[in-house]
Amino acid sequence: MQRYKIHDKKNSFQSYLCHMEILLVAATEEEMAPLRDIWFRKHKVEFLVTGVGMVATSYALAKAFTEKPFQLAINTGLAGAFDRNLRLGEVVRVSEDILAELGAEDDDDFLTLKEIGLEGVDIFLNMDEVLLKELNEFKKVRSITINTVHGNEASINKIRERLHPHIETMEGAAFFYACGKSNIPAIQLRAISNFVERRNKSNWDIPLALKSMKQAVALIIEKI
Q1: 85 contacts: CB under 8 Å, gap ≥ 6
Q2: Which contiguous run of DSSP H or E holds residue 221?
Q3: Contact 178, 54 (CB under 8 A)
Q4: Residue 61 near residue 55, CB atoms below 8 Å
Q5: Low-confidence residues of the chain: pLDDT under 50
Q6: What is the pLDDT of residue 119?
Q7: Is the residue at 10 inside a domain?
Q8: Please, which of 101, 120, 191, 208 could form a disulfide with 213 given CB 3.0 to 4.6 Å?
Q9: Cα separation of 58 and 50, whole Å?
């Protein structure tokens, strides 16, 4: 796999002014709505609902970054957890995100871009989040970004064995890619709404996850 470090610079946040222009990014209005009620005292915050998935996220962010130079972008939203040590409603910070489906199948084997001789990036390592001590209270996780949410035992076991993810989302790696290409420092926070298993919405707790995310975003933006 080929890794891409997001802003591998120790001074990513050192050049900030007291009042920053921050872009809050979420895939859906349901995920964004609770955040609109927060009173952001220190910084100017704008909201961007991108639409679901990597394609919509990439386009929306490219357009937003062309129109305004933000000092920080924060991707928020829900996530499914592979790691059963995580709790429903827990907020985690993504330090590594993988484009899990970018490659080729060779019968039962999966081949990465490098293995099939193609250039490109499929792992994103976020160096910005380690520079904010305020994020330390949130557990650091490895995420995979996918087009199809896992809900089949065989495919779940296969992706666990291949990539050992803690969570999955449908936008995270695209967010990191767009921020990296635009030189915008990036943070990805996700709230656990469900565990990755055969689809059973009765086991989900979206209201708790959204409440936790609102509290986390309010705390982080107040402290930085």
Answers
A1: none
A2: helix 206-223
A3: no
A4: no
A5: 1, 8-12, 14-15, 17
A6: 87
A7: no
A8: 191
A9: 8
Q: Is 70 inside a domain boundary?
A: yes
How many whole angstroms separate alpha carbon 90 and alpha carbon 93?
Answer: 10
pTM over 0.85? The answer is yes
Domain that holds residue 182: 17-223
pLDDT tens by residue, 17-38: 468 899 999 999 999 999 999 9
Give the distance from CA 186 to its chain's centroid. 9
Q: Which two tokens stand for residue 72?
A: 């920080």
- Number of Cβ atoms within 10 Å of the Cβ of 212: 21
Q: Smallest Cα–Cα separation from 201: which of 144, 149, 142, 148? A: 149
Domain at 43, CATH number: 3.40.50.1580
Alpha helices by DSSP H, listed for 54-165, are 54-67, 153-163
Q: How far apart are CA 4 and CA 35, in angstroms?
A: 30
As to burial, measured by CB atoms within 10 angstroms (0-12 exposed, 13-18 middle, 19+ buried), residue 27 is buried
Distance between CA 39 and CA 219 in Å, rounded? 11
- What is d(CA 61, CA 57) in angstroms, rounded to the nearest whole number? 6
Q: Which residues contact 157 (CB under 8 A, 6 or more apart)?
A: none
Question: How far is 98 from 173, CA to CA, in rounded Å?
Answer: 6
Q: How many CA atoms lie within 13 A of 109 on its CB side?
A: 5
Whether 2 is in a domain gets the answer no
Q: Quote the pLDDT of residue 9.
A: 47
